[in-house]
Amino acid sequence: MLRKLPRAADSYFTYANLFLPSLKDVDQECPLCREQERYHKLSENSFLDKLKVHFIQQAQKLCIRSLNADIGAEEGQFHLIKYQRKIEGIHRIYEWFSQLRDNDEFKHIQFYPWLKLLLNETKSPFNRDLLLTGEPGKSEFSFESSTILKLLTQSPFISYRPIKGKIFEWVLELLITQCDKIRKGLSGYNKIPPYFTYSSFRDFKFLVRRAGLLNANYLINIDFIDFLRLIFNEHALDLLEADCKSEAKNYSPQRHIHIDEQSIETQDHKSKNVKNFNVFFVGQVKELLFMNEAKSIHLEEVLSVYEKSAPYILNSFSNQFSQLIRVLNEENGILISKFWEFIEGDMVYSTHLSANDQIKQVKATLKRSSISQHYRYKTLSKFFEIRKQSDPATNVQFHNYLCLMNFLLKEKTDEHWTLYEKTAFVINRLRNIIKDRPEKPGMFFVIKYVTVNNPYFFAYNDNQSGSLNERTWYTDKYTYLKDFMEGIKDKTYQSCLSIVEFQKVNGTWKDMYSIESDPSEVTLDPNLFAENINRLLLLRINKRRPDNDNSINQEMPQGMIGFFFERPVADADQLTEISRLRYLLLLRASISTFVQNHHENNEFRDWIEANNKQKTALLTGHGREMLINLARKEKEGDTYKDIVHTILLVQRFILDLTDAQMAGLSPTAIIFVFKGIFNAVAIPIYNSYADTLKTRCDAIFDFDEIENKDPVNVYPEADIEREGEQFHFPLDLLEMICFELFVNAKKNRWIFTPDDNLFKPDGRPYVCNKVDIILKRQDNKDGEDCLLLTIRNTGPAIGRELDDLKNNRYHNVKGANQVAGIGLISQMLEDFKLGELFFNEPPPVQGQFTFFEATLELYNWHGTQRKDYIG
After folding, report:
1. Pairing relation of β-strands 555-565 and 442-448?
2. Sheet holding 712-719, edge to edge
């Protein structure tokens, strides 16, 4: 205040510290309501479900509750004493600060001396003192010290600057002292007496919580993180958890009127408290970052230290500490999400532009001076530099993230793209984010929708190395993929795994995120993908139920996105880069909204129906009209009519197997009916059948309906007859198979020109294509009686396409590969265990002119090893 003296020239200033709350009038809003809202925002800004649930539960603790008169004596008395202590603490603190005092006394005093003054110089508002005087804090936190510290770090006292500054100093000193005490005692742990008890852990956790509320950078200081590494390396928490579980077996609390927190806190609760420390600590760090996202830079620097000393690989440190570092890394993405919120209004969405042009728009937006000169851009650039990532202007993964966020925000109003096109756009952006090698990773996107039986739909499933088998992706034996999507509980037992990565070692999939005490092997089919695929990354998509008291922690599975790829042996243990995983986690909520907007309504059901219609419309890979015309023009016999009928029937059986659960059918029953129908036409196959096949092949090359008429020389050869049992196989199926193989041979024939100059080994020129039909009979490697039918035809070298055929990648039409052409044949042989189809291309004869071989291995329908199968 300013006071003026009588003479105008003389004046002086005097100041008074009124201890008013800083900035905001705390009475304008309920402190508990404000805290609840903060926790809900923290949950929204968390990326793993375990952290989301953690903050939801924190918000729940602040809900209005009433004491139940019917509860047990211990619990009821516990609540009464607990809140009475708080009331007494608040009363004493107000009383102490209301007295006239020397400010320096409070400014320089330590916590325990001040606590003693507080208890001695103030009075309880109750008939008896609940906060007792004495010598608190000698070995562990007393009720007095913990109650007063908790009150001083909460509203309204935390709003007073002098108190906040002093309590910050006290908490930091107490936390460092507690760490030193634990550090000194760890070398003697597990001896008698124990040096790391639950009470010392509880006090340590209590102080970490106070430091988090006070926004203390010490929690992300490398010295403190190193202290946590010491705890994990010494397995102190594991041993303490085991002690709590052991004590729980013999724990029998006595019921008496004077009960305290220690006797109420059950041993089971104690073990869970210890087990969930990682989530608790990451939660404190998230609160730091939420209050000041720029602290992400310091945290990133600290986390990168561990990667420099031991790269981000499996078992770099003690496994549990590695998991802590991983979760901290995954949750340290708030700077990226805040930058998106900043740039969101400047992003343009154009439906007519290609993906590349949309990326160009993202780059153009980032180059604007209003963006590139903004402090958020510069802060993010510094954040990227720590891990030697490109700056925002040139960072490919970042561009795809922004492009996808912009798309997911605005696509709902886009009526130009179909749902299939939108889903493909999402998948391709995600693929570019995760791609860290020239080869694109394979991807699948499984959606769960509401249906009576099978709720799973493959919205996407494609890769250069073979897609995921949509029928056998989960079985009674291999359930992990389905279980993961439905929800596998994490170590907290309160939330589900959000992301997980697997490594294939010696034919077995192993969880790279598992800890020492858990089995790393999971129920994943070793033959899930092509032989070279040795890595699998899964991202779970889910949403939370409506916010109400009974279901706030419940969540609903929506889908699963999988990335599968090959990792070189040299990098076999290296996890996917954290910078790429962050983008996936940052996108989870938006993808969840996308699924909810499109895949949980009539638009999605229309897509499923259209997909089914497309599959049933693809009669064969060589055209519905072509085959129907052949059947219609057939003058003698019903060969092509029978082929049409057989293809339709087989196609229906394959589709029924694919959708068996959805239709409420048993796969075993479908196979049984299939076998029963074709068992009636299983006849002996003789050497003379080779001549019949020659006739079929000549006719197909002579048809104008199939790639125009073309001459061909067909040479049949057969040696399949044996004394005793003949080879049996359904003639209808064999005719259908050979028709497809002959049509395939014609479509891949050599087109002769006068300038070819192609010559046979005897010097005569080739003037038309040649087809060899070879039938042999032999036992396969499993000892089964088999018919080998090889169709070898001349044609151009197909090169890389041969790899596609060998890996069952017949073409890229979604949903058509298992019901059309060569794909239909191979799928039928596999599903009903009839045999196998192989492809081979010998060295070229001359230039690109070569032979192509398709070899059919068929099992004897009446073979001794097949009788139990066909009944």
Report:
1. antiparallel
2. 712-719, 769-779, 785-796, 849-859, 835-840
Other CB atoms closer than 10 Å to residue 561's CB: what's the count? 25
pLDDT at 33: 84
Bridge partners (DSSP) listed for residue 539: 499, 561
Give backbone dihedrals phi and psi of 739, rounded to 5 degrees, phi first.
-60, -45
Q: What is residue 253's three-state secondary structure?
A: coil
Short-list 780, 787, 783, CA closest to 737: 787
Q: Tell whether pTM > 0.90.
A: no
**Cα gap 805→359, rounded to integer Å:** 34
Contact 153, 208 (CB under 8 A): no
Residue bearing tokens 């202290």: 227
Q: What amino acid occupies position 716?
A: P
Residue 544 and residue 49: Cα distance in Å, rounded? Answer: 10
Given a contact cutoff of 8 angstroms between Cβ atoms, the answer to whether 285 and 219 are in contact is yes
Q: Which of 118, 137, 299 has the alpha carbon at shortest distance from 222?
A: 299
In angstroms, rounded to a whole number, what is the distance separating the alpha carbons of residues 426 and 590? 11
Each residue's pLDDT tens digit, 480-503 = 999 999 999 887 778 899 999 999
478 in Cβ contact with 523 (< 8 Å): yes
**Bridge partners of residue 504, in order along the sequence:** 509
Q: Which residue has the tokens 């561009």?
A: 399
End-to-end CA, the chain? 103
Give the separation between CA 803 and CA 128, rounded to whole angstroms. 85
**Tokens 């087990």 sit at which residue?**
275
Contact 796, 740 (CB under 8 A): no
User: Is 718 in a helix, a strand, or coil?
Assistant: strand
The token duo for 397 is 């993964």
**Rounded distance, CA 318 to CA 334, Å?**
27
Which sign, positive or negative, has the C-alpha torsion 251, 256, 260, 265?
positive
For residue 110, which of 143, 139, 137, 140 has the smallest C-alpha distance?
Answer: 137
The candidate with the shortest Cα–Cα distance to 542, out of 448, 452, 473, 409, is 448
Mean pLDDT of 680-689: 88
Rg (CA), the chain: 36
Residue 464: band (very low, low, confident or very high) from pLDDT cuts 50, 70, 90: low
pLDDT tens, 539-588? 999 988 655 444 445 788 999 999 998 888 888 778 899 999 999 999 99
